[in-house]
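Putative formate transporter 1
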Amino acid sequence: MSYIVPAEFVTKMVDAGESKIYMATRDALIRAYMAGAILALSAVFAVTVSVQTGSPILGAALFPVGFCILYLMGFDLLTGVFVLTPLALMDRRPGVTLKAVLRHWGVIFVGNFLGALTVAFLMAIVFTYGFSTPPSKVGEVISHIGENRTLGYKEYGAGGMLTIFVRGVLCNWMVSLGVVGAMISTTVSGKVIAMWMPIMLFFAMGFEHSVVNMFLFPSALILGGNFSIMDYMVWNEIPVVLGNLIGGLSLTGLTLYTTHMKTAPKRSFN
């Protein structure tokens, strides 16, 4: 069968988390860079489809193509390592320490950000004919996304901060299910289908993904968005990263690990 049962793929999750901790910094950085770049290009694709068709749901339905590509290529997103690497720590794998986990998160964050930022500059050139014209319609939409999802939250103060945090939690609940989805099948088609469903859901619902935002907000600033770098960090990236961490680890990683790998003793009716 091409489907791998939960007890088996959860072991694969822990093994994957351990292997990422031991990965050379160079390799981790390259894989994170490419993941950030591909996901950023996928975000451009989704916005372009939405603008051209006037149908945001169609853009959301096609956005997962980038996620599928990057995971099939073995690249890494911060949202994925938030889920996998702590499981290796909790499983007490040899040599896996909290310091090593945090260091790996830092490397992946830097790589994802640099990859997303590269695409932001490249697409800004495309949207403005080398900065010689105002942004195209798609570029203009992206600049407004940056404003709406920073200043739009800031307008509501603590309520806005809570909202963005919860959207980050819900986002990586779904995204991490996509990461796990790549492990539950031995066929490419099975992996793609399993990844596609939760990723489409998160994008269609407007949840907040820290790596997608690493592209959207720098891109919006380059294209003339009316908000500051501090607005982006305080009213988007930082609370979203925290929400992504808590959502993915608690709602996906810990639940699967606890019930499928550390299964409680079966009930006795004797």
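thats it. The chain has a mean pLDDT of 96. The chain is about 75% helix and 0% strand. bye
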